[in-house]
TrEMBL record:
SUPFAM superfamilies referenced in this protein's UniProt entry, alphabetically: Radical SAM enzymes
Cofactor(s) needed: [4Fe-4S] cluster
Domain CofH/MqnC-like C-terminal: 13-103
Taxonomic lineage: Bacteria, Bacillati, Actinomycetota, Actinomycetes, Mycobacteriales
Gene3D superfamilies recorded: Aldolase class I
GO molecular function, one term: 7,8-didemethyl-8-hydroxy-5-deazariboflavin synthase activity
Record's protein name: 7,8-didemethyl-8-hydroxy-5-deazariboflavin synthase
Keyword set, alphabetical order: 4Fe-4S, Iron, Iron-sulfur, Metal-binding
Gene this chain is encoded by: fbiC
Keyword Nuclease part of the UniProt annotation: no
Amino acid sequence: LRTLRGIQERTGGFTEFVPLPFVHHSAPLYLAGAARPGPTRQENLVVHALARLMLHGAIDNVQTSWVKLGITGTQRMLQAGANDLGGTLMEETISRMAGAENGSEKTPDELREIGAGISRPVVQRDTFYGRVRSAPQVPLMVE
């Protein structure tokens, strides 16, 4: 994270940090014994929380992955420092092929429910984290 922060301070090129956990359940490397299992829920929580602390003032947005972590895991990451739910997605297959069981798409209303479940308002955003008033299939972030 220090290296990433240094790169950001020199270039200003990152809009977000997205710690994507390895989904191992059906991953060929894991099944062949060449990779360890993916991170635990606690390890994911620590990465999201440390990212918020260590990247503060350099990279403002920390995204969580509902596809990889599920609704409850995503809510925990939002409580630990993430502020971005990612996108609605359409036909996500990579995580599902690796064994993730959290679905392949969500509607904006379903993403709003994730935020509402932890009393965090959700707004639509564009690629550069500007607010979008009314547009279909755009990523959402929490405030």
